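SUBJECT: A protein chain and its fold
Encoding: whole-number codes for local backbone shapes
Chain under study, with its fold:
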Amino acid sequence: MTAQPVPAGRNAGVATVLTTHIIDALGQDIADGVLAEGARLTIEGLQQRFGVSRTVVRDCMRVLESMHLIVPKRRLGLVVQAPASWNVYDARVIRWRLNGPGRAGQFRSLTHLRRAVEPVAAALAAEHASSDQRLRLLDLGRDLRRLGENGDLEEFLAVDIEFHTLILESSGNEMFLALQGVIAEVLSGRTHQGLMPHHPKEHALRTHEQVAEAISSGRPTAAETGMASLLAEVRSAIE
């Protein structure tokens, strides 16, 4: 019987899964300190570890290099960089750090960032959001209330990510919107690390609704104050 060729699309899918696995494995090792600053990697060593071709290893190394986790050096190979060099805004770096021993510090840093950005974004959204965006925020606020009271944490998480992303988008500031992946990772991390109560607190549900209402009615000060209150509760819960 003649062997059937593997469809090109399937080959591409397998390659993507494989490279993702390798990148995640090495990225997590670096974030955890298993591969500490100054550790040296070689293409040949990685080929043996993962059982893949040089091409696959090089593709993965380019990704890690783009995050500044490693840097190629002549006669040394691929050298692991210090945390100060990492692209700490990359969503994958954030995920690895939240999964590692530095989880508490990463949550603190991300919460400080959110407190610096999101209240201002909410105030700008109250000024610049479109009619559709204002109505959608009201819908999302109501959905968060329903899902939170029902204890549907995974659905709550998806809606919460959309809520905060939409506020960044509605602000009209493209630099705020560029943080959407960061916000999504910290929200996901809090839920998946077991730091969210099964039923979100009433304060969190109420302030989400208040922020949505303030933005919808064009009240920037109320939107900013409400978001600041929400994130103060987040900081308290994490600490």
Notes: DSSP finds eleven helices and three strands in the chain. Strands lie at 40-41, 70-73, 77-80.
